[in-house]
Each structure stands twice: as structure tokens, then as C-alpha cells.
Amino acid sequence: MFEKPKNIDTAFRQIRLFTLVVIIGSLFFSGFTLYQSQQQTAELKQKVYILANGKVLEALLTDRRENLVVEAKDHIAVFHRYFFTLDPDDKVIKANTTKALYLADASAKRQYDNLRESNYYSNIIAGNISQEILTDSVQVDLEQPPYYFRYYGKQILTRTGSIVTRKLVTEGYLRTVSRSGHNPHGFLIENWAALENYDIQIQTR
Fold first, then answer.
1. pLDDT tops 50 at residue 2
2. pTM of the predicted model as reported, rounded to 2 decimal places
3. Which of 3.10.25.10, 3.10.450.230, 2.60.120.10, 3.40.630.30 would CATH assign to domain 64-204?
């Protein structure tokens, strides 16, 4: 007579224990699944897909501070390349200098105006001179903005009868601005000035 209630009580305890194990297991599985999905979402947010020439390329998204030095140096090098790469073609000169002036403030515009008024660009065209620049090094101090920099490079002027190599040293400051199609690095060169610019080699052709 008393065995039946005992069996019922034992069965109830077993069912309760089993139910408790199932609930704890479900909670653990749900928590693990939520954690994994958050991890995958965070990883996916770090990936950027770029469409280039009809091909999808994968790039990784990183904090800008990790690449600040690289971006700053490249911005400075690109500016100098556009500003000093000239061919005896008015359209090429205008196209390159326009790209350069998007990367700097009025100090670069003043240099451009001074060169134009002194007939520098006209002489490039009249003398069929091609000018290119080679970057030696770029030093940037990122301790505090605006960031001071110094650029070292060489200008190569190819004339009809000679090739002239000139040393170029400039300095200025970098200010952080919004990125755009004209300014992908998000920097603006300020107070730009040439410190040295003189012939170091003349080679007869």
C-alpha cells in the first residue's frame, strides 16, 4: 500500500532532476550559441569587401591609429609626387597640381602661384622638360597634432641635353580632416615650405 506512493515520489524526483538538467543544458547551449554568434558578428564587422575591376577583394578593417604613421607618410609622399611630377604638357601640369592642392592648404597654393608667375611651368613646356620626384624618406612626429613632418627627396629634370638631379627638403604640418575622394588619407598639409632645393648632379645626355 505504501510502496506505490514511494515509487511515485521517486519517479517525481527523477523527472524533476531530469527536467532541471534539461533546463540547465538548454541555458548553457543558448548562452554558448549567443556568444559564438556575437564573436562571428564582430569578426565580420572587421571585414570590408572592395569591388575593383569586376573582382571582389577582401580587406581587413583596423583602427586608424595602427596605420597612422603609414597613412601620414603616404599622404606627404603623394602630395610631393603630384606637385613635382611635371611633363611638357599644360593639361598634365594642371591635373597633377590640382590633385596636389587638394592635399594641402593655402601655403601650397602660394608656392604654386609663385612658380606660375615666375614662368616656371611655361619654361617646362617651352624647354620640353620632364620632371619627376623620388622620395628618399619622410619623418613625421605624431606626439601631438598638428603633426610636424620633414620630407627628403630628389627631383630629376630630364632636358634635351642633360639630366639634372636636385636635392629637395621640405617641412610642414599635418592636420586631420574628413576623408574624401580627393583626400583619401584624411590629412591636410599646413605651412608647407621648402628648406633646401639645389643641384647635386648634372649628367650630359
1. no
2. 0.70
3. 3.10.450.230
